[in-house]
Amino acid sequence: MRIFAFAAAAISVTMSGAIADPIEDRKAHMKERGALMRVLAPVAQGKQDFDAAMVMDALEKLQANAEVGRDVAAFWPEGTDTGDSKSSPNIWADLEGYQAASDKYAADVAAAVEAAPQDLAAFQAVFGPAAANCGSCHEKYRQ
Amino acid sequence: MSIVRNLAVSAAVIAAAGAAVAWFLTAPSKVDALMLEALETGDPTRGEQVFWAGGCASCHAAPQASGEDRLVLAGEVRLQTEFGTFVAPNISPHPQDGIGGWSVGDLANAMLHGVSPQGQHYYPAFPYASYTRMKPQDIADLHAFMATLPPVEGRAPENELSFPFTMRRGVGLWKLLFLDGSPAVALADPSPEIARGQYLVEGPGHCGECHTPRNALGGLDASRWLAGARAAEGDGTVPNLTSGEGGLSDWSEDDIAYLLESGFTPEFDSVGGSMASVIHNMAQLPASDREAIAAYLKAIPEHADAY
């Protein structure tokens, strides 16, 4: 439950639009995404029992996080490619592609929420495609 | 004759002899013909596993290729290092532009000895210093699999290297120092699983090429095997895979195997850059191979971060 509280707090902070340090902010944003994945992935792997309410709650938080993340200009403004960051220069070389990748991820997560999975198989069917975005996006846009 | 002239002549003779010895020692060597004859006909199904274990697609398919596109081996991936830029060649089975005309022996010479069919040294950006530990039968199987892939027309551009690295013969000297098919680490009585992991990591997987630090001459420092390193490209670092300080001591074997399958760390960060490409390859292996790699990584000597 602590993870949920943390995630909710982090979402409310990022949604307030107070972006002071884009590198720190995008790191916190990604970590929050990771924390939610940590709730969902073990369920998809069958290591954790499927609980429809718990899954739905985490999926909705993941969706809110993904929507916020579509604001590429706020999190990855020009000039923030150096410093303590693992963001790849490919982001700024291909902003359009990066925006498209963020939009696709958000759409896949939204589809998972829309599906409102009621059993493990239904959840796996929508979670797999959404989670596949992590690797494919990081391959090009993360060092 | 003056003493000075005698000395000069002697020095010239010694230098000439030295050059002759160096020329002889740096000559490209080839695999044993009898060993080749003893191999079974290559099996493409087994060869596909070797292909993924060897990570061929990471340099020879297009960057960020996925799915079937990882089998289109046109080359052209550029590896920017302090020695210059190496450009991966076309290794599709195209008869002229790729390696369609190669025999099993040609592929074995390339992978086990780093020598081209024309008898020239390859640069060790092609990780034959690891592939040299591979079983010859695996090479024969790989050869059979690669013949089934789509041929691609067109050659990749040449490497862009600066002197003295433009002298391929010099690679012979590098090989004398660093091309050694013996195991990278000595493990006392490893289980079959750990031994399999050792083969995959030290041979085809060529993990040490990025995860082990190099000395000034570009050879791997076996005394800090897999302890992490500065990245060959850019100014980043490559993680320590041992259980020493900064390494994987907090990771279970399950965590390691899951990362190799999914790209997710125990914190559900997802690996990026070139490791994301490695995950595409590792995900194609049987689960038992990923578990074997994890078991091996837990068995090797611990070192603190080497970068």
Fold and architecture overview:
The complex is a heterodimer of chains A (143) and B (307). Chain A is 74% helix and 0% strand. With 143 residues, chain A is mostly helical. Chain A has a single domain (2-141), classed as Four Helix Bundle (Hemerythrin (Met), subunit A). In chain B, strands 1-2-3 form a three-stranded antiparallel beta sheet, with no helix packed on it. Chain B is mostly helical and 307 residues long. Chain B is globular and about 80 Å long. The longest helix of chain B has 23 residues, at 3-25. Chain B is built from 13 helices and five strands. In chain B, a hairpin with a 6-residue loop joins β4 (229-230) and β5. The N and C termini of chain B lie far apart (58 Å). Chain B has helices spanning 3-25, 33-37, 44-54, 56-60, 104-113, 128-131, 136-146, 170-178, 192-202, 208-211, 253-262, 273-282, 287-299, and strands spanning 78-81, 84-87, 160-161, 229-230, 237-238. The A-B interface holds A 30, 34-35, 37-38, 41, 45, 86, 88, 131, 134-136, 138-143 and B 63-64, 66, 234, 236, 258, 262-264, 267-273, 276-277, 279.
